[in-house]
Amino acid sequence: SLTYSLDKGTNKNPALIALLEEFEKYKTLKLTSDKVSFSNEADRQFVNGGWLESYVYDALCQIVQGKKLAKNITISTDSDVKNEIDVAFVYANRLYLIECKTSSDPEKFKDYLYKIDSLGKIGGTHVKKILISYHKIEDKATKERAKTNRIDIIDGENLFRLTENLKKCLSKNM
């Protein structure tokens, strides 16, 4: 079933309710006072984070016009381990890998950084890595680890200026 119960805390989160109502306007979901329903799995995946990947991809299409750009790529290692990267592209002879996350769980960011850093190593030393998060990353250790591993972060309110912030990442990595 593609119907999920909303816990009582959800109704007290006006930002989340506003976001769900926006998705409902575009017929991606149906919202009632205690449930959210999706008509298909693709809509559920889109609401669950696919929208951020699409937002980033669309912004990059404007920036890197005519360049090789792809989303939802599966990368396999020699040991047959498969991972997905949300967005990848080549710009100024460099490979860029982007992970897009909508989770608010600070513990998960360690895993996200590990994943993008590991995938970046597959592509060599000149791969540029960017973590884009819907939520602001507050944890200092997470930010420090990203800096140490040369992973740029665009998060929280910085998404309002996504195109500008992506351009900054591209220009500093040239």
What does this structure look like?
- Helix content is about 40%, strand content about 25%.
- Helix 2 packs across helix 5 (about 160-170).
- Strand 5 and strand 6 form a beta hairpin.
- The chain contains 5 helices and 8 strands; from the N terminus they run E-H-E-E-H-E-E-E-H-E-H-E-H.
- The strands form 2 sheets. It has a 5-stranded mixed sheet with strand order 4-5-6-7-8, with helices on both faces.
- The longest helix has 23 residues, at about 40-65.
- It has helices at about 15-25, 40-65, 110-120, 140-150, 160-170, and strands at about 5, 30, 35, 70-75, 80-90, 95-100, 130-135, 150-155.
- It is α/β, with parallel strands linked by helices and about 170 residues long.
Number of helices, counting only DSSP H or I runs of 4 residues or more: 5
Helix content: 40-55%
In terms of structural class, how would the helical and strand content be classed?
Answer: alpha/beta
Output the strand order for the largest sheet: 4-5-6-7-8
Cα-to-Cα separation, first versus last residue: 48 Å
- Report the count of strand segments: 8
Mean pLDDT: 88
- Could you state the order of secondary-structure elements as H and E? EHEEHEEEHEHEH
Task: Bin the strand percentage.
Answer: 25-35%
Characterize the biggest β-sheet. 5 strands, mixed
Which word captures the global form?
globular
- Runs in which pLDDT lies below 50 for 5 or more consecutive residues are none
Radius of gyration: 17 Å
What's this model, at a glance?
With 174 residues, the protein is of the alpha/beta class. The protein has helices spanning 14-25, 41-63, 108-122, 140-148, 162-172, and strands at 3-5, 30-31, 35-37, 69-76, 82-91, 94-101, 128-133, 151-155.
